[in-house]
């Protein structure tokens, strides 16, 4: 298999990459060359920063994502968006700084302790490597199913997207988050959904979705839902470890990280152990299947893999990273306002030949009309 080209991983001179995600460099995935219309050449023209070479033409009915020379001012305005911190949307065992302060006293909701063994994901190799000064420093295991595309949008596009999001109301959500949903109303427990009120993805996402299709990993990706989440350190925003539904949502989960770098923490509650091998200097390319002969093992339940996410990067989760490893954003990794836009595609049940293919086609047509408002 041809080795993917990309910059080296985190500078290991920094004691703990978890505390400095902003200095991490990531693999660049080159898009396929657009030829006009729906035609695409199979050969991909690789550039050092593919997203920057793409222009954002205004769609017929979509607000234009403006390029310009006021990137810094626009980005600062987006980060400093005003908000009211008097209420929260927490329910059950979920809490945020607001409701914790209101309750006072000794918190009965103690947050789960950090996993015993920390590993860092290196995007340019596909390996998870033991953190420095840990019991497993120098040991590693392949971690498939994670793709990071750095600088997917420009600073001006980022600021304009957040500005357009902030024009619509944000709803309070669990664990100190706020959200905006563009998708059908779904009852995952009963496996039912309602299309009433769903008018599609927002108009400003038209170009984002088109650009996704320029990358091989996403060339046939057609999202039917977009969920915007707003994280704020003053609210103690976080999201607990979870697996996304697989009845309605398909193989790929795609998320655009805006305004601030953060860390995606991945964990697995499966029994058994992960087999490790020594990670030589420079780290070899991870094999497509399997791993070299193991030399050590660690219980799955004690492992957490940190995937540093830079600002303006696009994350794609597939395979084991999508279906076996839970993902989370810990409170300690939110140091400034962060906005994410997560896009989801339909499962096979709603695709061609699936049991609910007609409903799936209806959802796709609505979604890709790009006339949506938050539901």
Automatic annotation (TrEMBL):
SUPFAM superfamilies: Clavaminate synthase-like. InterPro entries: AlkB-like_sf, ALKBH4. The keyword Oxidoreductase applies. Residues 35-44 have a biased composition (Basic and acidic residues). It comes from the Eukaryota. The keyword Oxidoreductase applies. Keywords: Dioxygenase, Oxidoreductase. Residues 1-20, 29-48 are annotated as: Disordered. One of its GO terms (molecular function) is dioxygenase activity. Its cofactor is Fe(2+). PANTHER family: ALPHA-KETOGLUTARATE-DEPENDENT DIOXYGENASE ALKB HOMOLOG 4, OXYGENASE-RELATED. This is Alpha-ketoglutarate-dependent dioxygenase alkB homolog 4. It comes from Balaenoptera acutorostrata (Common minke whale). The lineage of its organism: Eukaryota, Metazoa, Chordata, Craniata, Vertebrata. The gene is ALKBH4.
């Amino acid at each position: 298999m041809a080795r993917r080209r990309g910059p080296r991983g985190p500078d290991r001179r920094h004691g703990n990459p978890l505390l400095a995600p902003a200095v991490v460099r990531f693999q660049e995935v080159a898009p396929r060359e657009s030829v006009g219309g729906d035609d695409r050449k199979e050969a991909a023209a690789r550039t050092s920063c593919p997203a920057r070479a793409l222009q954002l033409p205004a769609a017929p009915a979509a607000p234009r994502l403006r390029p310009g020379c006021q990137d810094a001012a626009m980005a600062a305005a987006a980060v400093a968006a005003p908000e009211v911190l008097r209420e929260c949307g927490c329910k059950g065992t979920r809490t945020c700084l607001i409701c914790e302060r209101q309750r006072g006293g000794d918190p009965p909701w103690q947050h789960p302790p950090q996993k015993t063994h920390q590993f860092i994901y290196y995007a340019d190799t596909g390996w998870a490597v033991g953190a420095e000064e840990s019991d497993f420093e120098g040991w590693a295991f392949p971690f498939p199913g994670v793709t990071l595309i750095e600088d997917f949008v420009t600073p001006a596009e980022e600021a304009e997207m957040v500005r357009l999001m902030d024009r619509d109301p944000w709803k309070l959500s669990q664990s100190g988050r706020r959200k905006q949903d563009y998708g059908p109303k779904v009852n995952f427990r009963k496996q039912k959904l309602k299309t009433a009120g769903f008018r599609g993805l927002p108009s400003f996402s038209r170009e984002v979705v088109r650009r996704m299709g320029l990358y091989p990993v996403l060339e046939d990706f057609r999202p039917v839902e977009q969920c915007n989440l707003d994280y704020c350190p003053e609210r103690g925003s976080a999201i607990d470890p979870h697996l996304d539904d697989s009845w309605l949502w398909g193989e790929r989960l795609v998320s655009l990280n805006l305004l601030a770098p953060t860390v995606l923490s991945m964990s697995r509650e499966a029994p058994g152990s992960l087999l490790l091998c020594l990670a030589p200097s420079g780290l070899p390319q991870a094999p497509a299947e399997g791993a070299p002969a193991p030399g050590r093992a660690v219980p799955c339940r004690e492992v957490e893999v940190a995937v540093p996410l830079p600002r303006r990067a696009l994350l794609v989760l597939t395979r084991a990273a999508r279906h076996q490893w839970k993902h989370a954003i810990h409170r300690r990794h939110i140091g400034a306002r962060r906005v994410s836009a997560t896009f989801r595609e339909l499962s096979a049940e709603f695709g061609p030949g699936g049991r609910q293919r007609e409903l799936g086609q209806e959802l796709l047509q609505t979604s890709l009309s790009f006339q949506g408002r938050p539901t």
